[in-house]
Amino acid sequence: MLPLAMMVIAFLLLLVILMQPATNARALPEYSAQTGEPCATCHVSPSGGGPRGPRGQAWVGEGKPGAVPSLVDALEALGVHLDVDPSYYEIVPDTIQPAQPLPLRPAEADALQDWLSDYDGN
Prior knowledge:
Elements: H1 4-18, H2 29-35, H3 54-61, H4 71-77, H5 106-118
Helix pairs in contact: 3-4
């Protein structure tokens, strides 16, 4: 068994270690205010903090300028070169048709209403 003095020293050392102030987080809400972007723009976690995604890594790598780079620009800055044809993912507004109501005859609607009112959930 350890002598009492050694136990007191170990306890005091543990107490000193536990009393150390926590380190400040480096992800600050001020960055979000500076860039006008939510924390999830740069961080993997939607609430911010923790590891950065590609846009956050590129933003820090560029010296934290006033704007976060787009995903394509961030990947370029990180050494990833993509051959992307924007026509594959851009939406042309004229090609989208507005939603139409579902045509339902009154008899079908009544049968559906009866079935739903009798349905107990399982």
